[in-house]
């Protein structure tokens, strides 16, 4: 069941101005909603946490079916979106311990409120969504804000926040941070509406409506083609999501209204890009945010020695890591990818790098040793390189670099500085895949039948020339390089607000967002500036992707990170309740499960 509330009821301007005469700068007093608020109810065979699927339904490798595959309903799309986002973030394998040692998927009935919001100066909106449980505790008002990880859609933070918050009677607020899975089929002229349904371009209220030049073809998506550089606004996205949740609570419980930043606790939590987003929110002025938990955050502390932006180390890894991994013992690398299958391509990369003068060595193994030494010299650890193997095997580095180059330079459709674009891999299957893009897309193709087109692709190592172009946008001096570099500079994080409790949780073995380049310099800079209420938990044998632990070799080697994010939420909540002091720094001796199931002893918690 769904209904729409008039825009007048959700004017964030009215609530913000009524609460405090001097509100935080920016989003709270200038928030624009481009759609009315959509309200849906989730009870009985449906719920907020899993759309009624429960643990067994989420564990299924078969996606929830559409009754009509060509025309799924909004409820069916939502159910599949929850299935996809849970499986993309959490280890739900039977031996992984979810629901037994940590986390819950017990049904939580309630309502969802969603709309499109726009930060000042942005061309395109971001999605905001609030989940309000029926048992919301109006005596202990609490909102947990969960920006999506990666570039995922609006439910991309559900596994991070909802299992902790909803059972406690807290509301959860989400934002897609200006990314998301609102893909546009340029050939068919179809975008995505607020309810996830396909609609023709030009329809009011589309979640993404790009400028389409004449003759454009393929697929456009918001992170790459909005011309907004959404990462520069991550903190404001989080702030607007929090403000939206307060308005949703006003609509849900009018007798207890108003819900304000003064009478409602606001905790922000996120992982990966979501972790970077909550740290960007921590620097915003005003007393609106009460605590922050940042898991494996993609954060660039430009003022701190050792900090490197994602685009820098991602393009470096994309070029050198396929070669460097040959210098590591085969048994040191988790599988997949299978070493025997990828080794020929890695040897070809070594040979091409040597021919270009980018590595030295008389043969592939000597070249691999040199590539390995170069990465070590730039700050990569062997643990990060080993855990980075799937990013090489699944071509993730190139996908990230291609998208972020477009975003940082604020390029639109057909303007990529390296000529890259996106299109369906098989036009004959497009009609069957397109209706599910919103529910299943991860926000950055390739995937879901969409491929990355590279005009430079050729030869035995077809991705190399495109990667060299992407790398030159960071190291070069041309106009495109300056444009991309300016976009990267705009994403640099400031310091957290003084006295704001901030707990950073990061796996020591993280191979996608290495802590040496991100969280460690950020924490050091905050400490040096006198921010005493910041703590760092370093998790031994923690890598970046809990979902990969469903692969036996990953589960045997690595510990899940979500238990420590949930524990961090417990700790900062106790700090706010004044029942415990701010946690101390900790190095946590977690470990993988080996050949058995996860047991509590493998997941020790800090004192």
Helix content: 25-40%
What is the first-to-last residue Cα distance? 46 Å
Rg (CA only): 23 Å
Provide the low-confidence segments as ranges: 1-27
Residue share in β-strands: 5-15%
> How many extended strands?
18
In DSSP terms (H or I, runs of 4 or more residues), the helix count works out at: 21
Overall spatial form: globular
Question: Oligomeric state of the chains?
Answer: single chain
Structure class: alpha/beta
Strand count, sense and barrel status of the largest sheet are:
12 strands, mixed
Summarize model confidence as the mean pLDDT: 94
Provide the descriptors you would attach to this structure in a database record.
607 residues; alpha/beta; twelve-stranded mixed beta sheet; two-stranded antiparallel sheet; 21 helices; 18 strands; 14% strand; globular; disordered N terminus
Please provide a written account of the structure.
The chain starts with a strand and ends in a 19-residue tail after the last strand. The radius of gyration is 23 Å and the shape is globular. Residues 1-27 have low confidence and may be disordered. By secondary structure, the protein is of the alpha/beta class. The strands form 4 sheets. Strands 1, 2, 3, 4, 5, 6, 7, 12, 13, 16, 17 and 18 form a 12-stranded mixed sheet that branches. It has a two-stranded antiparallel ribbon with strand order 8-11. A two-stranded antiparallel sheet has the order 9-10. It has 21 helices and 18 strands. The relative contact order is 0.13.
């Amino acid at each position: 069941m769904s209904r729409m509330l008039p825009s007048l009821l959700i004017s964030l301007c009215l609530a913000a101005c009524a609460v405090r005469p001097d509100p935080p700068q920016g989003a709270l007093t200038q928030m624009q909603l481009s759609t009315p608020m959509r309200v849906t109810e989730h009870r009985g065979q449906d719920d907020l946490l899993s759309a009624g699927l429960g643990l067994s339904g989420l564990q299924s490798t078969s996606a929830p079916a559409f009754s009509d595959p060509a025309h799924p309903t909004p409820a069916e799309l939502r159910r599949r979106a929850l299935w996809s986002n849970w499986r993309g973030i959490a280890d739900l394998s039977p031996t992984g311990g979810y629901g037994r040692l940590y986390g819950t998927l017990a049904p939580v009935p309630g309502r969802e409120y969603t709309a499109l919001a726009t930060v000042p100066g942005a061309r395109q909106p971001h999605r905001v969504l609030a989940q309000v449980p029926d048992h919301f505790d109006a005596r202990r008002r609490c909102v947990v804000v969960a920006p999506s990880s990666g570039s995922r859609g609006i439910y991309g933070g559900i596994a991070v926040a909802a299992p902790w918050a909803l059972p406690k009677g807290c509301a959860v607020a989400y934002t897609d941070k200006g990314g998301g899975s609102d893909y546009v089929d340029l050939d068919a002229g179809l975008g995505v509406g607020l309810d996830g349904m396909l609609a023709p371009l030009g329809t009011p209220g589309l979640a993404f409506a790009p400028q389409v030049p004449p003759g454009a073809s393929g697929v456009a998506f918001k992170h790459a083609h909005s011309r907004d550089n959404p990462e520069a606004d991550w903190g404001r996205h989080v702030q607007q999501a929090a403000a939206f949740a307060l308005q949703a609570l006003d609509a849900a419980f009018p007798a207890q209204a108003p819900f304000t930043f003064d009478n409602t606790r606001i905790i922000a939590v996120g992982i990966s890009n979501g972790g970077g987003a909550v740290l960007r929110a921590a620097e915003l002025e005003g007393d609106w945010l009460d605590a922050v938990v940042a898991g494996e955050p993609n954060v660039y502390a430009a003022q701190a020695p050792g900090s490197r932006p994602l685009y820098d180390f991602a393009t470096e890894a994309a070029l050198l890591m396929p070669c460097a991994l040959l210098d590591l013992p085969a048994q040191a690398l988790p599988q997949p990818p299978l070493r025997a299958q990828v080794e020929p391509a890695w040897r070809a990369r070594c040979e091409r790098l040597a021919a270009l003068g980018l590595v030295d060595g008389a043969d592939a193994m000597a070249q691999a040793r040199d590539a390995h030494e170069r990465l070590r010299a730039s700050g990569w650890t062997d643990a990060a390189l080993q855990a980075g193997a799937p990013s090489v095997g699944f071509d993730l580095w190139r996908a990230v670099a291609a998208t972020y180059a477009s975003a940082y330079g604020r390029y639109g459709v057909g303007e990529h500085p390296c000529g890259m674009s996106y299109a369906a891999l098989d036009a004959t299957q497009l009609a069957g895949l397109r209706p599910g893009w919103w529910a299943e897309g991860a926000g950055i193709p390739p995937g879901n039948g969409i491929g990355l087109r590279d005009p430079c692709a050729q030869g035995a190592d077809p991705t190399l020339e495109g990667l060299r172009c992407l790398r030159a946008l960071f190291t070069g001096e041309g106009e495109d390089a300056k444009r991309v570099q300016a976009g990267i500079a705009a994403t640099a994080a400031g310091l957290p607000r003084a006295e704001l409790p901030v707990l950073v949780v990061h796996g020591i073995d993280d191979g996608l967002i290495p802590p040496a380049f991100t969280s460690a310099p950020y924490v050091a800079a905050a400490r040096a500036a006198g921010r005493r209420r910041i703590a760092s938990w370093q998790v031994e044998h923690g890598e970046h992707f809990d979902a990969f632990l469903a692969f036996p070799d990953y589960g045997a080697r690595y510990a899940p990170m979500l238990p420590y994010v949930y524990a961090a939420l417990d700790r900062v909540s106790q700090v706010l309740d004044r029942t415990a002091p701010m946690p101390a720094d900790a190095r946590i001796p977690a470990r993988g499960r080996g050949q058995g199931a996860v047991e509590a002893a493998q997941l020790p918690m800090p004192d």
